[in-house]
Amino acid sequence: MRWFSSKGLQQLAEQTSQYAAGNIAGELKPEEYPKELQPLAGHIQAMAEMIRSFTQESQVASSQVMAAVKQVNKAIVNADTLGGKIHQETAGTQKLAASLLNGASQAKQEIEQVVQTAQTITQVAGGIHQDSIKTRHTAEQGCQAVLEASDAMTAIQQSSTRIEACIQNLTKMAREIDSFLGAIQGISTQTNLLSLNAAIEAARAGEHGRGFAVVAQEIQKLSEASATAASSANGLLAQIDEGVAAAAAAVEEGAKSVENGVKAMQEADGSLKEILAASSQIEDQLSEASAARQSQLAATTGASDTLNDMAQMCEQAALHIDEVVGSIADQERHLAETRNMGNLLAKVAKSLVDTTQKITLVTISPEMQNQIQRLKEQLTALAREQSLLSLEPAVHKTVLSGFLQTHANLEAIWSNNLEGEFIVSLPPAGIANAGSREWFQEAAEGKIYVSAAYVSAISHKPCVTIAVPISGAGGRIGVLGADVSVA
Q1: What is the pLDDT of residues 414-423, one digit of tens each?
Q2: 481 part of a folded domain
Q3: What is the rounded (10 degree) CA torsion for 47, 51, 52, 55?
């Protein structure tokens, strides 16, 4: 009995030493020991189960913490990179805001000058408008004066026509008087001849013809006086003819001058009417231009007010950007602290993983090694199938579901694109992105990855992860992975 006890104690000591060395894969069966050692073996077995359970949960927790820390650190790096870009862009925005502020200030000054210029132009345009109105009034008065002068010239022309008619009548009368004087001269010549004949006859009569001779002499004198008077009247009539001819010539020239004056007045009237029409048109245009300039002035004034508001908003924006720059600097400082904390957590998680991995929960038998090798080859062949190259979720789900159903020792199977996003995961993955996982990084680089045995976060039992690249004609396009149960 003592020998049996010593042998049982030795066997129990060897098993306990394996547990103490961290290898708790072996199972201790208390019923195989002597009765006096069974209680102790039961306690050791219970302690081994507790250590095994604690180790499994610790490995699951440590692996989850490690994965979470990697994911957080990746997010922190991305946030830090994004913060750097935001800092640069904010600095550029700050410079842009300063440039906008300077531009708005300069634009404000230029708009103020434009407003002053517009006011001056409006005043000048108003003066031109008033001058145009005065010009139109003057043109109207000139047009009225030309109209009156034209009427006067027309009256003069009509008077000249009447004078011309009178001169023509006077010339006709002069011609008649001239004919009458010619008749008188003829009568005077005949009377003179008659008196001469009477004197001759009186001389022949002697004493009896003396009285008749006296009468003949008187008749001769009267004939000579008549001839003299007719000659004088003839000279006077010649002078009258010359005067009438001169008057007719003067009237004719006056009529021509009046006619030319009437034409000139008509032309002047037409020109003044054109000037009046142009003045009215210019006045209307100036009126419209004045209204447009008033609108332009109002719009320019409004633009000046808007630019003033924009300048104030730019100042406020610059202040806000300064605050944002300060906040980003604080954020960068907090991110640095968070990154340091993440690094510390990563060290703690790695230490926990390393510590828990020192405890051997399961011993992979040669048969299990062969199963893992066959699964690696089958997954590699599956990753080359043409149907998986499309990366279509529905196709991947069908193919992977069929593979999972035909392999009872698989806990999970999944596929990812090169961004780490899950295309399909059966059952659903506990993470959104596998980019930080070692198996994904190795497979994404074109390597076939087989992990050491660890505790699965799905079943909380030992498993091995296999990951292989999915490659197409253009190179790697994704990752195919599976968890193999080794319990």
Answers
A1: 999 999 999 9
A2: yes
A3: 170
